[in-house]
Amino acid sequence: MRAITLNQPGEFQWTELPVANEPGPGEALVRIRTVGICGTDLHAFKGRQPFFSYPRILGHELGVEVLRVGSGVTNVAEGDLCAVNPYLACGECISCRQGKTNCCICLKVLGVHTDGGMREEMVLPAAHLYPSTSLSLEELALIETLGIGCHAVNRSQARAGERALVIGAGPIGCTVMEFLRLRGVSFEVLDLSASRRDFVQKHMGPSRMHESAESVLDQTPELPTLVFDCTGNQKSMQSAFSYAGAGGKLIFVGLFVGDVTFHDPDPFHRRELTVFSSRNAVPDEHRFILQEVEGGRIQTKHWVSDLCPVGGMVERFPAWTDPSSGILKAVVDWR
Ligand SMILES: [Zn+2]
Ligand SMILES: [Zn+2]
Question: Residue 329: nearest ligand to its CA?
Fold first, then answer.
């Protein structure tokens, strides 16, 4: 069976793997049909992903087809098309016992900590498959990405009528906007890139666009009470404290390797801010997302700006790491 392995930063290689095993109890053998490419993959390619080891088979945003199921599997059957929960949690640690499998202390994410889906077939725990009879394979591959925004908005407990600011209008920022919109929260967006601002303006329904910090701060003292930083940029994350209004919440969706510092008395204490981190998503959120996409309340068709046949991926990949390429989301087509 063929696979694409990232040998080291900047170097993909087609490799030959043994044929996938037959599925054991509770497992399913699946054929990979689509693989979404996200920031994690791009950082791994560039050698900037923290705690990442090479060689690694990438691929955690998957649309798959069930080929065979093992004993005891009832949630999926041969021929089903499914989205995949790529977060393999232990089920026993302190975070898993609280239902927070998203931050399991021994979490293994497919394509990050363990080999992922850039291969023809693989065996997965059937409980990690979410079948859908109506979604396209591209839509299925985007369920995991949407989970990031869904979880971040759930963390914030955003309420209808509140005002939010989303910093960073890449794919993750757009997922946050989708779930704010579903909750009836109006949102402003700050992004330095004109092409990303155009995308948001056209597709996401922002209440206002900002191209600079000054433009956000002009609104003082009536600042937004919810600020989502989706940049993973140290400067942006530190500035984000000053964008949140009194009593507000700051949610770090993106992350970077290093320290985030802030001035305690102002803005943090004076405004009594609350700071959240947000990591991955939980299965209930994935199921909710599937329902919302199936019901047409979330539309992701226009997100995929590059659907690339797998044969062309190795050549195309470097272009996806270039923010000026104007590509919001690339999906690799393994059909
Ligand atoms: Zn991802
Ligand atoms: Zn655990």
Answer: 1
